[in-house]
Amino acid sequence: MIEVWGCLLILLAAFVTDLKTMKIPNVITVTGIWSGLSYHLLTEGWRGAWFAVAGAATGFGLMFALYLLRAVGGGDVKLFAGIGAWTGIAFTLSTMMYSILAAGCIGLIVLIWRGETRVRLRRITGSVLGAAALRSAAPIQAAAKGQLQFPFMLAVLPGAILAIYYM
């Protein structure tokens, strides 16, 4: 249970800063990674260290793929490495899944509220079809420049809470 509380402390700090500045500073993300790794190393030895490294690599790697598509920022990538360092692979994957679902719901609500749903759906469809036809991510990356943006922590914190609830 200490792992979950350590992770939640990092998430709360990231939540506050992301809402204020749309950025998650390195001091929070790096602290999350190193404190999770240190905790597991001290309490479980090398086995715990590998648990933390595997979780951090999973969180970082999968979020880095989303970063390349310009779906998330660099702070989000490092934050998920911190989540993984504290909680391991399974919890990180659950948090990621719930966060992406929550982000989709938030995005859809904002689009409906603004009345931009059709325009955005056409743009997304065109970029995905263009990427498939060209066998390149370039159309998706180009379309990402005009995409809807909101602090991803609005989705990550509820995602983590759902992951805890269903754990």
Descriptive report:
The protein has one domain (2-165). The chain contains six helices and no strands. The protein has helices at residues 2-21, 26-68, 74-114, 117-134, 138-144, 153-165. The mean pLDDT is 88. It holds the Pfam family Peptidase_A24.
What would you report as the Rg, rounded to the nearest angstrom? 17 Å
Instruction: Average the pLDDT over all residues and give the rounded result.
Output: 88
What spatial form do the alpha-carbon principal axes imply? elongated
Kindly, what is the distance between the CA atoms of the first and last residues, rounded to a whole number of angstroms?
11 Å
- Name the helicity range: over 70%
Q: Biggest β-sheet: count, sense, barrel?
A: none
Uncertain segments are none
In total, the number of strands is 0
- What's the SSE pattern? HHHHHH
Number of domains: 1
How many alpha or pi helices?
6
Strand residue content: under 5%
Question: Which structural class do you get from the secondary structure elements?
Answer: mainly alpha
Tag the structure with descriptive keywords.
167 residues; mainly alpha; 6 helices; 0% strand; elongated
Outline:
By secondary structure, the chain is an all-alpha fold. It has helices at residues 2-21, 26-68, 74-114, 117-134, 138-144, 153-165.
